[in-house]
Write a structure and sequence with these properties.
The protein has 191 residues and is mainly beta. Helix content is 8%, strand content 53%.
Length: 191
């Protein structure tokens, strides 16, 4: 299947599935006034090809064992620069995964959405929504893990021209505490 068809299927799934995506009202970002800055280029730093080193918790809420992987992340603009698509392939001697992320910017809300699809199950995950502030991007979603409702927080930080840091954390106490479960350090291979 072509990358364009994958993106189109994801976008279709987003249109059908975003209505069901919920973030607890207390954790939902505050509506932004029309005077808010235009964040349409916040993810431009991410465009290019990256080498990634990943540490992943083997079972959030059930294990303290971490696994490590290395891989490649390729990100490109699509739809005339109104969105970007990220493809990742990573692995170790014990595991391998591939996935696709669609990043969309909403100019009315001044927020980004991020939707992840893992090749292992082909399911479109609930979209994370949020924004960048002071050079740090934070997007939040809600999911179920081991029958419990959890919040998932994705954070991009330490953004430099040739490197950045990504961390996913979860909270099972409505955002009072956060447990990292996926940490990636990325170094640029090519623009």
């Amino acid at each position: 299947m072509t990358t364009f068809r994958k993106a189109l299927l994801i976008a279709t799934g987003l249109a059908l599935g975003l209505a069901g995506t919920a973030v607890l009202a207390a954790d939902a970002p505050t509506p932004v006034s029309s005077a808010a800055r235009d964040g349409a280029h916040d993810f431009d730093f991410n465009i290019g090809t990256w080498r990634t080193h990943i540490k992943a918790l083997q079972d959030p809420l059930g294990s303290t064992a971490w696994g490590e992987m290395t891989g490649t992340v390729t990100v490109r603009k699509i739809w005339g620069g109104k969105a970007s698509m990220e493809e990742i392939e990573a692995g170790s001697k014990d595991s391998h995964f591939e996935g696709l992320t669609l990043f969309l910017y909403n100019p009315q809300s001044h927020q980004w959405s991020q939707t992840w699809v893992d090749s292992s199950n082909g399911a479109i995950n609930k979209s994370a929504v949020g924004a960048f502030k002071d050079g740090r991007g934070e997007l939040i979603s809600q999911d179920t893990l081991h029958g419990r409702t959890v919040l998932i927080r994705d954070v991009w930080s330490d953004i430099q021209p040739n490197s950045h840091h990504f961390e996913e954390s979860f909270s099972d106490d409505n955002g009072k505490t956060w447990q990292p479960d996926f940490i990636a350090s990325l170094t640029r291979i090519s623009p």
